[in-house]
Write a structure and sequence with these properties.
Blueprint: H1 2-11, H2 14-43, E1 58-62, H3 65-68, H4 73-83, E2 88-94, H5 112-122, E3 127-135, H6 148-164, E4 168-174, H7 181-197, E5 201-205, E6 207-208, H8 214-221, E7 227-228, H9 230-237, E8 242-245, H10 255-272, E9 278-284, E10 289-290, E11 293-294, H11 300-314, E12 321-326, H12 333-343
Parallel strand pairs: 1-2, 1-12, 2-3, 3-4, 4-5, 5-8, 6-7, 8-9, 9-12
Antiparallel strand pairs: 10-11
Helix pairs in contact: 2-10, 4-5, 6-7, 10-11, 11-12
Amino acid sequence: MIKRIGRIWRGWSRWRRAGVSGLFALLLALLPVAGAALALGRQYSGDPSDQARTRGRDALWLGHAWVDGRKGEADVAALTRLLAGTGVRDLYVHTGPLEHDGSLPTDRYPRARQFLAEVHRELPGLRVQAWLGDVVRPEKDGLELADRTVRDRITAASGQVLDLGFDGVHYDLEPIRSGSAGFLALLDQAHALTAARGVPLSVATPQIDPLPGLHALSATVFDHGKWWSQAYFAEVARRVEQVAVMSYDTGMPVRSLYGGYVAQQTTLALEVTPPQVDLLMGLPAYQDDTFGHRGSAETVAAAVRGARLGLDRTAPGRPNFGLALYVDFTATPADWAAYRAGWS
C-alpha cells in the first residue's frame, strides 16, 4: 500500500504535489485550533449549580462623568434604584487619568467629594474606590513603572484620592507586561499606604495564558502584553485585596467559545488567587464589533454562565468571588437583566 501511494505521488506534477502538501500543512496547523475550540466548547457545557451565585462581592466600573460634574444627585438616585437587589459592593469610579509622570491633577474630579457624600448617604455599605489608570511603557508612550519617581507620584496620587474620602484605590494600568518588576514594586508601595489607611487596594488585570507561554509569544511576535503567566498573576494577587480580571476583548467569534474561555479563565485565576483575596471576573456590558471583540459573542449572559461554571468546578464554596460589570455608560437594560437572572 505504501509503495502504491509512493508511485501515485511520484506520478503527480510538481504543482499538484505542492498543492496537496500545502493543504496537508494547513490541516495540521488547524488541528490545534480545532482542538482548542472543542476544549472551550466542553468548558461551556453542563449547568452550574445554585451554589454558584452571587456572594455580595460584585463590582461596577463607573465612568468619569460621576466626578467631573456631568452627573448629579438625580443620577445617584437612579444608580441607587439600579443597584437595588444586586450583589454589587464596590464601585470603581474613574477619577484619573493619571499624567504620564504619575501625578493626578486636582481639576480632574471637581465633584468627587459631593458624589462620595451622596453615595455614602444613599448606598450605605457600598465601597467607592477611585479608579486610577493610564497607559504604560514600553508598549505605549505613558507611565514608566521602572522609574521609582513615577511610582512615588502614583502612590502620592493614591493618597490624594483617599484624602477625598474614597474607600479604596483601584488601578487599571495597561498594558502591563507579564513579569513587570516595576508594577510589583508599585503595588508594594501602594499597599503599604492603603493598609495603613485600612482600605482595599484592587487592580484590573489582563487574562491568564490559556496556553503555556502565550504571553511571551504575544510580546515577542506582536509586541503586545495581552496575557499574564499564571505565576505572575499570583504574584500580583498576593499584593492586593481584590483582583478584577478583564475577561473580555478575547476575539472569540461565537458565544459558546467565549463562555468556555471565561470558564477556563475563572479556573486559572481561582487556582492561584489567595483565599482571602476577592477574585472578580469582568462582564462585557458593551456592544463593540472590532477585531478583538464581537458583541454578539461576548455577552454578559455568556460571561456570567462561564464564570459560574468555572467557579462550580474549581471552588464552589469560595466566598471571596464576584463579577464586575464594565461599564455603566454602555450597559443596557438587557445587560443588567442578564446579570441579575444569571447570578443573583
